[in-house]
Design brief:
This protein has 17 helices and seven strands. With about 400 residues, it is α+β, with helices and mostly antiparallel strands. The protein is globular.
């Protein structure tokens, strides 16, 4: 018998122990997920969803790891308002939106007549949510939502309700199962409804007997108008006016702190072009960048837009895009920064410039994520700039962008 290589034996034993340990850890997790899925399938049937739909939709062996990663990401980067509006309301989106409004003019006007919601606002929601149907999400909702129920840790009852609502849409014939693709958190369709909202407020606006917000533009636009009407939209009333406040303004602000137009006029607030305020209605004053930046008087219809995503920056983007689609100019007051945000075309070009410099950031897509921000930080460090990781005009120009 040859001599035993004790080192090789030790390595082999270590490998066996490691594999066994991994199995001991992974097997209970898989068993727990399988048990959770079995319970979900039974509960779905008990909720009235057909076994055929349940078996096809919830034939899931493992959680969606991408969804788990996204659900645990903490918001580490706060987007300045001029960045946010810079890429959501750029000239490309305005031009695309006006073209789409011409293409779907009859549908938008019909929705405006039926629900009383301004067609420019309907189109603006469509543009901000999915870039007019081009970016609606690629996560299979039953897999994503089941993962959040069984592995998410928080809001399990909410995710289960959304999962069952999505499956009921398939069961009642509104959608085919292969159309249930959207965001990791469950929003889907051309104007991004979550399933429970879809169940409550979607309308069959093209008259084919189904409410298909994925493939039917009329259904999506009509449903968005219905949502805004239910959220308190008032026909014929404004949603937002760009204004200026006196230098050093210290008066009341806030969406909820509404006052009559005459009262805002008495406080020295004027339209952004310098004309005096006029008209009726109650409005609140938003100063998202302080008194030196653009100001906005926002009305009850702005609150209806706000309810769609419950963020003032979001409602400002929708409102401003709606104004631009209606032919109004860009904001008259510049943002109080010497480093403005970039348009989508500029963000794409910035990534191409980083790739040309040798940064491994993956394919240029115009979406600024953690990898691109790390590359920007490295450029800023080399240039002696503060390390923000922000895709702003200064770093863009320093890299050769125009």
């Amino acid at each position: 018998m040859g001599r035993i290589d004790r080192g090789a034996v030790r390595q082999w034993l270590a490998a066996v122990i490691a594999v066994s340990a991994a199995g001991l850890v992974a097997t209970p997790a898989r068993a727990n997920f399988s048990a959770c899925m079995a319970g979900l399938r039974n509960a779905a049937v008990e909720a009235g969803i057909s076994r055929a739909v349940v078996s096809r939709a919830l034939d899931i062996a493992a959680p969606d790891e991408k969804v788990l990663r996204l659900s645990k990401v903490q918001p580490e980067f706060k987007t300045p308002i001029w960045d946010y509006l810079g890429f959501l309301v750029d000239e490309q989106r305005v031009a695309d939106g006006q073209a789409m409004m011409r293409r779907h003019d009859a549908t938008l006007r019909a929705a405006e007549r039926r629900f009383g919601v301004d067609r420019h606002v309907i189109a603006a929601v469509w543009g901000v949510e999915t870039d007019f149907g081009r970016e609606a999400g690629d996560n299979f909702l039953p897999h994503a939502l089941a993962t959040l129920v069984c592995e998410g840790g928080r809001r399990r009852d909410f995710w289960r309700g959304e999962l069952f609502a999505a499956l009921k849409l398939v069961d009642r014939g509104d959608l085919e199962l292969n159309k249930l693709y959207g965001s990791w958190a469950g929003a889907f369709g051309q104007t991004q409804f979550i399933p429970s909202t879809y169940q409550r407020l979607a309308v069959d606006f093209d008259g084919d007997g189904r409410r298909d917000l994925v493939s039917s533009v009329p259904d999506a636009l009509g449903s968005t108008a219905n949502y805004l009407k239910r959220a308190g939209w008032r026909e014929g009333e404004p949603w937002m006016i760009e204004v200026k406040v006196p230098r050093g303004y210290k008066g009341p602000t806030g969406r909820r702190n509404k006052a009559a137009i005459a009262e805002w006029s008495q406080r020295g607030v004027t339209r952004a072009d310098g004309r005096p305020l006029a008209g009726g209605g109650q409005a609140g004053l938003l100063l998202p960048a302080g008194s030196n930046g653009p100001g906005f008087l926002v009305f009850r219809n702005f609150d209806a837009i706000y309810s769609y995503n419950q963020a003032e920056s979001y409602a400002l983007a929708i409102s401003h895009l709606a104004d631009r689609l209606a032919g109004y100019p860009p904001l008259r007051t510049p943002w109080p920064t010497d480093d403005p945000g970039l348009t989508r075309a500029q963000r794409l070009q910035l990534q191409k410039l980083l790739l040309a410099k040798g940064y491994d950031i993956g394919e240029a897509d115009g979406k600024i994520g953690p990898v691109t921000r790390d590359a920007i930080k490295d450029v800023e460090r080399q240039l002696g700039m503060p390390e923000s990781g922000r895709a702003g005009s200064k770093v863009y120009r320093a890299l050769g962008g125009r």
